[in-house]
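Note to self: keep these together.
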Amino acid sequence: MYKNCKRLLAVTMFCSMLLSNINVYAAMVNMNLYYDGKMHRYHAEEVTIEINGENMPIEDMPPIILDDRTLVPARAVFETMGAEVAWNADTKEVYVRKESDVVVLKIDNKTGMKNGVDFAMDVPAKIVNDRTMIPVRAVSEALGCVVGWDAKTRVISIDEQQEIDTDVEDNDSDNDDNEEIEKDTNTNTNTNTNTNTNTNTNTNTNTNTNTNTNTNTNTNTNTNTNTNTNTNTNTNTNTNTNTNTNTNGVVNSGVVPTENSKVTSVIIPENENSQQIFTINTSSNIEKYQNLYVDDTRIVLDIYYAEKNLKSDNMTVKTSPFVSAVRSAQHDVDGVAVTRVVLDLKAPVKYHLTQSQDKKSLIVSFQESVVQSMTATNSDTTDTIQIQANAPVVANVSTLSSPNRVVIDIPYATSNLEPNLSAQGLSQVLAIRSSMYEEKTVRVVLEIKDTAEYEVIQSGNGIIVTVKKSTLENISYDASKKALVLQKVNTFDINSVIHTDNYLKNQYKVTLPGDFTNVYGYGTMKLPYEGIPSVTVENIGGKTTFSFLENKIRAYTVTEDSNYYYINIKNPKEVYDKVVLLDAGHGGNDPGTSGNGLNEKDMTLSIVNRAYALLQNTNKVKVYLTRNDDSRPENRYRANTANDMADILISIHMNSASPNPSPNGTEVLFVTHSNDVQGRLTSQIVATTLLQRTVNALSTNNRGLKYDTQHQKNLILLNSTVVPSVIVETLFLSNPGDALKISNTANHDKMAQAIYDSIIELADKYTWR
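Structure:
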């Protein structure tokens, strides 16, 4: 089995942090790594690998250390040693075949398979910078190799001649230089008796964000077969005491403050081209915080022993190319007050999180980029422009007409580009220009053919623009009118156009009365409209249909003049006088509360769907839903949607006091908004109306209005909305009488009627805007 490793390439590996006492002259490696949906800055000392005693370099992507284990590029290593490496994109598996042995690794799975038999690994294979990286020790040993680690020389060795040393691993902890001591038993025939007792204690105190306590104790006993005994007892203890702990993004000083701090302010950049630093300030020391990874769309910071004392819970940011908003909320973890601050990102970008020297601030900083190169290539009717920078960048893309241009602005960046790049040999791009549009904004302009389609994506440290020939004709987009413009080649009656609003599936269809493929063609067109990324033109059932992809709910109208038809994209509040967003609480994997055999999410959905059906019979209001099935929109989405396109938000819920079965009745929750205006509809008016009609309809106990306490202020639907918003706690599922009442679908109809009557009353009596 060991022969499989004779030609295994040596690889380079990196330590995870700078060590203080070993090989201080080792080369440093700095690079950006993109994995697990996030950009990581990699800064580590170089480590070498020896194969059968020979130092072997690697010229492809270097190995990396994740979770103290070395990952290497699969193909670069194992194809060179004669193995066959294959990748299955559907199952996300990599296959390494060598003679009769086959090793299978699944991305992000710590269980590998050799010849059909599972084996465990300390770390899984991963996709890093679009490369398949696999654990060198796991695969090497699966193929029969032995792997050793020498901490003094920083060499990882792969050899077929030695026995596997189970005490060693390519594991450099953040602050420890642990000398591994072997455990040996030898027999000799000496007539001498030697007793050596050596105690070596090494204590290092470091201040950093990791706590590592390592104790290595090895006993070597040599016993002869005669009358003499040679005994050596060596004890090596390494103790590291650190002030901070770093586990899953948690930094903890270990100090428990006697009173909570207050999060007092968040300082944002002055403009897009100023230094991109966000500073979260508190009134006293931050003793514990966590950088909680959720996804690439946000930075989530939890500050422990902290109470939120910010002027705004939802701050829109217009001065950063990277951050669109800063949000905050209050919650608790095991009785500890925690303030959560969230930075919503415009795209996956690299950032640094540090704590100020006085420990009273958290600082999130973003790197200024340098646009280093731009290339242009052609393949048949498709042109590809690649813009490369030294760090992840965010592109602000817009279009200009006369001539047709794609404008790519890269803020907080400088440029090493030439002013013009040749477009010779390209089929869709007519000219390419670059400049410093502002002091720290790089602008790239692509002049393209009128009918060309384009796509701009962020990839690693660069931007890729694909421009291809379009199959669409006689169609354009007028940004000033926010309308899709169709030339009047063949006419049709705009009153015969069919509208299909499937907003819960992110789609709106406008269907023309006939087949106009020969006039407008088919295909997908990108739109420079926020929230409507594209429109697809296709023939469905013999009729030309325009399908708009929606990230925001929008309303559409069709108008015409002597030369053109216009499909106008509008906010619903531009089309309808009064707009209601009706929300069935919870849903999907969030059942809400339960009691007496009933689940909250089922009760709320039944009631809301019935109320929606009633409201389709009136033209006094336009009603939209957050869900009409067993799905679970995020509460943040529900609040943002209401702010964007609704006049009021009504969220239907059920209450519980489990295990206490006594509480019963109806209550309505709201928070007073700073923009409430006398004489105009407010949350309190909506809550009062719904409470009275619900109590009357269901004959429940009136528990009154609940408002402006910390409990209500902690609810996203109430604290993150700027339009009148209420939560109706219909009744208690934990109370047998209330539960029996709501288990009867006739009472669902009564509650739906109460919602309908409340909305109509509000529409008739009050000014909504």
